[in-house]
Write a structure and sequence with these properties.
The complex is a heterodimer of chains A (128) and B (390). By secondary structure, chain A is mainly beta. Chain A is built from one helix and eight strands; from the N terminus they run αββββββββ. Chain B has a single domain, classed as Peroxisomal Thiolase, Chain A, domain 1, CATH 3.40.47.10. Helices cover 34% and strands 17% of the residues of chain B. The longest helix of chain B has 16 residues. The chains are: A mainly beta (128), B alpha/beta (390). Chains A and B meet through strand 4, strand 5 and strand 6 of A and helix 5, helix 6 and strand 5 of B.
Chain lengths: 128, 390
């Protein structure tokens, strides 16, 4: 499978999934939440950042059912959603084990974790 | 009076290889051949060339190409990033260089075997493992299984269908128009092979909601374009296609194919391009007799019509009905057959078709094509041109 490139700006996210936490970057100066993370706050310019732990609940904003071609490390068909988290940020996640007809824009999802190996845990999503 | 690039440069030569699924030559050789054809087209020689520009993605460097061509000295060379979004920007680079006297004759080129070698429609492990911010950006999609161009576009397409009550058939009308135009273009891979809307609907699902016939081809081939100053252009063999406007655009919170974190996902970067094209040229959508809109995936053609101002948000499904985007309609698109029908040469073959329309030599000639709008890759930081007859 394809592993994420990780650097010092994004490591907190992947350290979080290892511990069963879905972390969202927060600005320690103005409090804005953002995903994907980065070294600066686009809202106020501050470089001082932390994170909050998400509730793990979200709503499908869009989704696809990938049928062709093969995707390394995945079984097809593969349902992938773009999820609006209740905290107000958006992220992409696999929704394994769901039939294509069981998902729609607006479906409520709950985060879960796929422990790939000792170094990597991927957030995945299930119907809430 | 605002300063612009308008009218200061022209595309004077176009050249290409055949478009195939297996060229049997190296990518560098394809580009050499395309440049040789483009120079012969306008009556210039290798000795006239002092600039080269291409895509960051191209595997043939400017110096490698210069060596093979026998170009002795280059005064200008540059690359544009972001996949197919670079297409029209290579012409912008060349136009800026010749307009400022930095160079006299610049050739823009793109050549690849993206069907017989590294296939663009597959999951690109290389894209996900780049040691740069693009690789880091891809960490939020590829490991989750979202890793083909079709899949990244399908995410936008699903939302578009939901927001505007559009249907897959609305996407299909773009494919039907492209393939109708390709059917009469002997250089098109799908020459003589038009499709119907029923064919589109019956084609297999690649990534719901995109069918196979919503997706462009994977092609082997190369295209080259020769750009020089407006003054010099008047003395050459072909009718010049003047650059009335040339623009790049990137939007707020921009990513490559995965700008998913904006409130309204869409392609606002093309709106940036459009506003700049209208500003530079002093023209408006109603002045365009036709357009070449980048069509790696059909939904983005609808979104471009909206972003460029040909119709309002959510109105493109109605705009494309009843043959409106086919030759004879109110805004013929992609008269070469587009990248679904002719070939997928990262938008450079579309620029060449724009030049042929200005010259009056397209096999699907649009009457009074005095201006042609051409766009580059969508879903990425992108670019556009307005070509003019004079």
């Amino acid at each position: 499978m394809i592993r994420p490139m990780v650097n010092r700006d994004s490591a907190f996210f992947w350290e979080g999934t290892q511990k069963g936490e879905l972390r969202i970057q927060s600005c320690n100066a103005c409090g804005v939440l953002r995903h994907p993370p980065g070294p600066a706050c686009p809202a106020c310019g501050a470089l001082d950042r932390g994170y909050v732990v998400a509730s793990g609940l979200g709503t499908v904003f869009s989704y696809v059912v990938h049928r062709h071609p093969p995707v390394p490390g995945k079984e097809l068909p593969l349902v992938i959603a773009l999820i609006d988290l209740d905290e107000g940020v958006r992220m992409v996640g696999e929704v394994p084990g769901v039939e294509p007809e069981e998902i729609a824009i607006g479906t409520r999802l709950q985060v879960d974790y796929n422990r790939v190996d000792d170094e990597l845990t991927l957030p995945i999503w299930r119907r809430a | 009076m605002s300063r612009t690039l308008s009218g200061k440069a022209a595309i004077v030569g176009i050249g290409a290889t055949e478009f195939s699924k297996e060229s049997g030559r190296s990518e560098l050789q394809l580009s050499v051949e395309a440049v040789q054809h483009a120079l012969a087209d306008c009556g210039l020689t290798v000795a006239d060339v002092d600039g080269l520009t291409t895509f960051t993605m191209d595997t043939s460097s400017e110096i490698a190409l210069a060596r093979e061509l026998g170009v002795e000295e280059l005064r200008f060379f540059s690359r544009i990033n972001y996949g197919g979004g670079a297409a029209c920007a290579t012409v912008q680079q060349a136009a800026m260089a010749v307009a400022t006297g930095v160079a006299d004759v610049v050739v823009a080129y793109r050549g690849f075997n993206e069907r017989s070698e590294s296939r663009f429609g597959q999951v690109s492990v290389a894209a996900a493992t780049q040691v740069n911010t693009n690789g880091l950006d891809n960490a939020w999609t590829y490991p989750m299984g979202l890793g083909t161009p079709a899949a990244t576009v399908a995410m936008q397409a699903r939302r578009y269908l939901h927001e505007y009550g559009a249907t897959s058939e609305d996407f299909g009308r773009v494919a039907v128009a492209d393939r109708r135009h390709a059917a009469t273009n002997p250089n098109a891979f799908f020459y003589g092979k038009p499709i119907t809307l029923e064919d589109h609907q019956a084609s297999r699902m690649i990534v719901d909601p995109l069918h196979l016939l919503d997706c462009c081809q994977e092609s082997d081939g190369a295209v080259a374009l020769v750009i020089t100053s407006a003054e010099r252009a008047r003395d050459l063999a072909q009718t010049p296609a003047y650059v009335a406007a040339a623009a790049q655009g990137s939007g707020r919170d921009q990513f490559v194919m995965t700008s998913y974190y904006r409130d309204d996902i869409g392609i606002p970067e093309m709106g940036v391009v459009g506003r700049e094209l209208w500003r530079q040229s002093g023209l408006a959508p109603a002045d365009m007799p036709m357009a070449i809109l980048y069509d790696h995936f059909t939904p983005y053609v609808l979104m471009q019509l909206e972003e460029l101002g040909f119709c309002g948000r959510g109105e493109a499904p109605d705009f494309v009905k009843d043959g409106a985007i086919e030759v004879g309609g109110r805004l013929p698109l992609n008269t070469h057959g587009g990248q679904l029908g002719e070939a997928y040469i990262h938008g450079m073959n579309g620029i060449a078709e724009g030049v042929r329309q200005i010259r009056g030599t397209s096999v699907n000639h649009v009457a009074d094509a005095h201006h042609v709008l051409v766009t580059a890759g969508t879903g990425v930081p992108t670019s556009g041109l307005i070509l003019a007859a004079g």
